[in-house]
Design brief:
Elements lengths: L1 E2 L3 H16 L45 E5 L9 E7 L10 E7 L10 E6 L2 H4 L7 E11 L3 E3 L4 E2 L7 E9 L4 E8 L11 E5 L2 E5 L8 E8 L4 E7 L16 E8 L9 E6 L11 E16 L3 H19 L2
């Protein structure tokens, strides 16, 4: 782990300032507030209504026909402790602003299985371009507050650290063949039940100990689709007097030049997953309440052929001018 000293740190710092609240979220994935289209009370999974339909009057839909789709899970709405839902994180309770996305899975989808996968269809309202647009590079940033892994049978903390994913987020690609995958591990009882920050480099699982703040920290994924790699940054919350992420700390470079698992050059889907933790070998553990918030996207499309021609012509003109002097 090294502190960022390169050009990419400037990019990271700039995005961090946006996430600090100086500008509103522009993505429909966004901040999970009512203005972002998340109008239903806590317990209504995002795949059970047209979450993200900003400005639209709520109309019940057939489950999984909106922007969110439950691929793996209990298929139960508002009746179990397995959900991806809008959830308040202030002092007013689950149905009071400010809101974030809550991910929890301690009610088995099929005991002793706590696996859950929810797909999100990225839109032009997230990226500023059509999600099928070929990209040269992209930055995806968001805030995260990890939860712990929990043994529902023992009704207590997971007692064994297995260093396995408890939560993962895949960006791009498909569920079976994702682009980049990051997340956090099961909690470590030998380290104050902290989790580790995880990422996949190609097909290799990596976990890194970071001093989570216990509030919202910030994550930045910097894609290079030309080299099919990504850089990964984590920034600890600066002001612990507030729950929200506050900029001020230097971004930490977690991974540089990590390989994408599957070659991609578009950002069309994202996959939010809760995983089953083997626990103590007798009873498995699931993911307790974890929060994500303030998603931001910045993309650089691949230049059009006409633009490339203009650049080439400009380069030739510049070379001729140099040669004539």
């Amino acid at each position: 782990m090294s502190y960022v000293k390169s050009y990419h740190s400037i990019v990271a710092a700039a995005v961090t300032l946006v996430l600090a609240g100086q500008q509103p979220a522009h993505a429909l994935l966004g901040g999970f507030e009512v203005a972002d289209g998340y109008t239903q009370t806590f317990g209504n999974d995002v795949w059970s209504y047209d979450a993200g339909a900003t400005g639209a009057t709520f109309t019940p839909i057939q489950y999984n026909t909106g922007r969110f789709h439950e691929l793996v899970g209990s298929s139960a709405v508002n009746t179990d402790a397995q959900y991806v839902s809008r959830h308040g994180y202030g002092g007013g309770g689950a149905n009071s602003a400010p809101f974030a996305m809550a991910v929890r899975s301690i009610a088995p989808a099929g005991a002793p299985n706590y696996d859950m996968t929810v797909e999100y269809d990225v839109g032009i309202d997230d990226l500023g371009v059509a999600p099928t647009t070929p990209l040269a590079s992209a930055v995806v940033a968001f805030d995260i507050c990890p939860g712990v892994t929990w043994d529902p049978l023992a009704v207590g903390f997971d007692t064994v650290f297995n260093d396995v994913p408890a939560f993962s987020l895949s960006i791009g690609g498909t569920d079976a063949a994702p682009g980049a995958t990051i997340g956090f591990s099961d909690s470590d009882p030998g380290n104050a039940f902290d989790t580790k920050f995880t990422h996949i480099d190609g097909t290799s699982y990596n976990s890194t100990a970071v001093p989570w703040s216990g509030h919202f920290d910030n994550v930045i994924v910097d894609f290079n689709f030309v080299s099919q790699t990504y850089d990964l940054y984590w920034t600890r919350d600066f002001n612990l007097a507030t729950i929200e992420f506050d900029a001020g700390n230097t971004p930490v470079l977690i991974a540089s030049g990590a390989s994408l698992t599957t070659p991609i050059n578009t950002l069309e889907q994202m996959y939010f997953r809760a995983h089953t933790d083997p626990g103590n070998g007798v009873a498995t553990a699931g993911l307790e309440k974890s929060f994500l918030d303030n998603f931001q996207f910045a993309v650089q499309p691949v230049p059009e052929p006409a633009s490339l021609t203009l650049l080439a012509v400009g380069g030739l003109i510049a070379l001729r001018r140099r040669a004539s002097h």
